[in-house]
Structures are given as structure tokens and as C-alpha cells.
Amino acid sequence: MNHPYLSVRGLQAGYGRAQVLFDVSFDVLPGQVVTLLGRNGMGRSTTIKCLFGMLPATGGDIEVDGLRTNGQASHRIARQGLALVPEGRQIFSELSVEENLIATARPARPGGGSARPWTLERVYDLWPRLKERRNNLGWQLSGGEQQMLAIGRALMTNPRLLVLDEATEGLAPVIREEIWQTLAELKREGLAQIVIDKNVGRLLRLADRHFVLEKGRVVWQGDSDALREQPEIVHQYLGV
């Protein structure tokens, strides 16, 4: 039996007295791509913050590779194989491209998420523009280049689970397409992913399973075929 790499059960969390997550449960198997779907404010990004220890859970359990991570510091959680490409990129603007990549680098662990270890040269092979601009500071990059750098920086940790929060938002169509192609290639290599994005069509092509959040609860889950067959789900929970 293929045991989940990430298991979330009955997750609850909020900000001050405002509870945002009431009962969020989902799994990510090794090599699987899942999505967290829902309108803004429904709890997707709050869930991600809890996974990485940036927001304490007030209830429920989070397990990474069978180990409970509730209450652990973010850097300890990251060492267990999780890597985040955050909304807004959040690269180090005063460091060069190469310094950004080296700053987060960790050697690959046995049973890692990708077929080959991620190194500086491999990231440059993935994103040749980063190699061309390796001496440029973060603030000197375009938005698309910054997003490439944010993904490359996460890959340099040699993760087993890559989490992407709105990684294509606000980018030119050609850059968005490059990112979707990259995520598909990472999936083929066996890297598990959690993807938050508004492009449902591309998510249906990429992901194995989808979890729809509404007011801090998972209200629907299923694979891409099931979601295609139920357009009312997209209209009810994802439409504007």
C-alpha cells in the first residue's frame, strides 16, 4: 500500500478570534499532484501556512512522512522535504540570482522527490535565463524571472513535496506556459506537488486529485475526470 507522504486531518486554524479553517482533511501520496481549489478567502493559503508552521493549527493533525509536525518550527518542517513557492515570490531582492539559489541549497536525501538531484547547473538548465542573469540582483529581474527564481530556489532544497501558491498569477502568457510545462515535467520525474492556481483548465490536465475548499472546509474531492463531469462544482465553488 502506498502511504501518504503528507496527511492532513481535521485541520483547524485562524487569526486571533477569527477562525478560518474548521475541518480540512486531505492526503498527498508520493509523486502525486493535488490541488486546493476555491475562491479567495476560503482557506487555501491559510492551509499552506499551517503546513509550513507559519501559522499554528488550533486543532487537527498534520503528518509528514508519518511524523506529526504540529508545533514544529518552519525550518524543521522544511528539512523533512517540503518546499514552498510562496504567493508574491518573496525572493531576496538584494542578493544575486546565484546567491538566492545557493542560500537555500540542501543535498538530496535518499528516496527524494525527483529522479535526479537538483543542483545549480540543473536549475540553470531548467531556466537558462537565470544563468544569463546569475549576477543580477533579485530586484533587477522581471516578474517572470523572479518567479523562475522562486521555483528554482525551492527545487534547490531537493524537496519531496513542492507547494506552489499562485505561481502563475500576474505573469505574461509565455511565462505561464513555461511554468505549466515545468510542473508537468516535475510530475513525470515523480515530484509530489500541491498547486493553488486559478487556471482550472490547466490544473485538470496536471493534477491527479482536487480538493475544493469553501469557508474552511473541504466540500468536494475527486480526480480530474470526476471534476470535468461535474461542471456545476466549478460554477458553484470557483466561479466569480
Task: Tell me briefly what this model is.
This protein is of the alpha/beta class.
Structure report:
- With 240 residues, the protein is α/β, with parallel strands linked by helices.
- The protein has a single domain, classed as P-loop containing nucleotide triphosphate hydrolases (Rossmann fold, 3-Layer(aba) Sandwich).
- 35% of the residues lie in helices and 25% in strands.
- The protein has ten helices and ten strands.
- The strands form two sheets. The protein has a six-stranded mixed sheet with strand order 6-7-8-3-9-10, sandwiched between helices. Strands 2-1-4-5 form a four-stranded antiparallel sheet, with helices on one face.
- The mean pLDDT is 92.
Chain-averaged pLDDT: 92
What is the name of the CATH class? Alpha Beta
Radius of gyration: 17 Å
Distance between the termini: 40 Å
Percent helix, as a range, is: 25-40%
CATH architecture: 3-Layer(aba) Sandwich
Low-pLDDT regions: none
Number of E-state strands? 10
- Strand portion, in percent? 25-35%
Query: What class do helices, strands and sheet pairing give?
Result: alpha/beta
Multimeric organization: single chain
The total of helices stands at: 10
CATH superfamily: P-loop containing nucleotide triphosphate hydrolases
Here the CATH topology equals Rossmann fold
List the topology elements:
Layout: E1 6-15, E2 18-28, E3 33-37, H1 44-51, E4 59-64, E5 67-68, H2 74-79, E6 82-85, H3 97-103, H4 120-126, H5 128-132, H6 143-155, E7 161-165, H7 173-189, E8 192-196, H8 200-206, E9 209-214, E10 217-222, H9 224-228, H10 231-238
Parallel strand pairs: 3-8, 3-9, 6-7, 7-8
Antiparallel strand pairs: 1-2, 1-4, 4-5, 9-10
Helix pairs in contact: 3-6
